[in-house]
Amino acid sequence: MKILTVVGARPQFVKASEISHVLRQANTEVLVHTGQHYDDRMSDVFFRELEIPQPDYNLGVGSAGHSVQTGEMMIRMEPIFEQEKPDCVLVYGDTNSTLAGSLVASKLHIPVAHIEAGLRSFNRKMPEEINRVLTDHISQWLFCPSPKAMDNLKSEGITKGVHVVGDVMYDVILRHIGSAEKKSNILDLLNLEPGKYLLATVHRAANVDNAERLFNILETFSLLDETVVFPIHPRTFKAIQSAVFSTGKNIKFIEPVGYLNMLWLEKNARMILTDSGGVQKEAYWLGIPCITLREETEWKETVQAGWNIVTGVERAKIMDTVLNFPIPDSRPALFGNGDASQKIIKRLMSEICSSL
Fold first, then answer.
1. What value does the mean pLDDT take over residues 293-309?
2. pLDDT greater than 60 at residue 175
3. In Å, how far are 99, 120, 159 from 156, measured between CA atoms?
4. pLDDT on residue 115
5. What is the Cα–Cα distance from 197 to 288, expressed in whole angstroms?
6. pLDDT bucket at 237, cuts 50 / 70 / 90
7. How far is Cα 246 from Cα 31, in angstroms, rounded to an integer?
8. 115 forms bridges with which residues in the sheet?
9. 3-state secondary structure 238-297
10. Within its chain, how far is the Cα of 314 from the centroid?
11. Rounded mean pLDDT of 210-218?
């Protein structure tokens, strides 16, 4: 079987590393990198560390507004899809790359498989929410990380081709946590002690493109009586520079780090503050309390389990939660057993063979 995989952003590289590893054992994969994330810190380092095959095509789209970026991806993808004639187009998550790949495939009558299907924040102001909803309604095969995601699809009338398989990112953590422990020297480089710092990531448009929200987040971090390690996304860096924010000396800004270093920073943090969906899950699997700097989350199971508290950007609520996080006594298994990649490829091959 020939599968064409579309990736373009950091979380997709992580997921694709495990899926490609399994897929290529008995099938042909054509890997298309849209270039949505394009510099070494956001792209190339993940291909090296996670041993992802080099892309067969790199579209080099780069940064742009949502419509321009998505449109340019579609223009550059269409001749590739026509030339390669894959049996299926595989997409991940909720980025512009995901939507662009899904739309082009559907126009060319190529079936779409969506990994991480069924997630909903129920906030249509988020570009990611639009991308994931549209992709789910285009897809022929939908691989859900949890029963809740399947229920979301059912409520929208999507029941055919839906499979609960677990979360591919858990597969990746299980495979690489040992390597992170052996290879990462990030704690030494930053002079950090395990359990003696907070880890923060902020990149969502709602937080970064809104100067008031971003100022409130940074000022809150500055008021905390702990070191806040802040790997700063290029988009966030530009926003801070343009607004000339001043920050406290307790905030340790660092450049984006690779997967292994990020995993080790997460594993050894006392607590994580983030607006990233992927980081929320990683915090849960690693047993680290998480504060979500948004008004909602797609990963509601982590909140229900008590390991993730959604605070928004309200200063008093963030500070109180940092000081008084009620850590639960248990951490139930969520999002599968670490074999999602095997389940996805086995099911996908069966579905494709039966449809030919």
1. 97
2. yes
3. 18, 11, 9
4. 98
5. 12
6. confident
7. 42
8. 92, 143
9. HHHHHHCCCCCCCEEEECCCCHHHHHHHHHHCCEEEECCHHHHHHHHHHCCCEEECCCCC
10. 24
11. 90
Q: In the structure encoding, which two tokens stand for residue 45, read together?
A: 């380092």
The DSSP-derived string for 60-76 is ---S--HHHHHHHHHHH
Question: Buried (b) or exposed (e) across 160-175, using 16+ Cβ within 10 A?
Answer: ebbbbbbbbbbbbbee
Dist CA 334 CA 331 (whole Å): 9
| One-letter identity of residue 46 | F
Q: Tell me the H-state helices in 85-185.
A: 96-107, 127-138, 147-155, 168-183
Tokens of 99: 């939507």
State pLDDT tens for residues 25-43: 999 999 999 987 655 566 7
Rounded mean pLDDT, 244-262 = 89
Catalytic residue among 21, 37, 114, 203: 203
Tell me how far apart the alpha carbons of residues 18 and 92 are, in angstroms, rounded to a whole number: 12
Structure tokens at 41: 């810190």
Are 182 and 125 found together in one domain? Answer: no
Same domain, 341 and 292: no
- Regarding beta strands 28-33 and 2-7, do their DSSP bridges make them parallel or antiparallel, or are they unpaired? parallel
Q: How far is CA 291 from the centre of its chain?
A: 16
The mean pLDDT of 239-251, rounded to a whole number, is 79
Residue 65: its pLDDT value, please?
84
- 111 and 25, same domain (yes or no): yes
Q: Six-digit token pair at 250? A: 């307790």
CA distance 302 to 156: 23
Instruction: In whole angstroms, give the CA distance from residue 71 to residue 81.
Output: 15
| 150/199 same-domain check | no
203 an active-site residue?
Answer: yes
Q: Are residues 3 and 88 in contact, defined by beta-carbon separation less than 8 angstroms?
A: yes
As given in the structure block, the two tokens for residue 220 are 């809150």
Residue 329 within any structural domain of the chain: no
Alpha-carbon distance of 9 to 182, in angstroms, equals 26
* Segments forming the whole domain that contains residue 55: 2-167+337-355
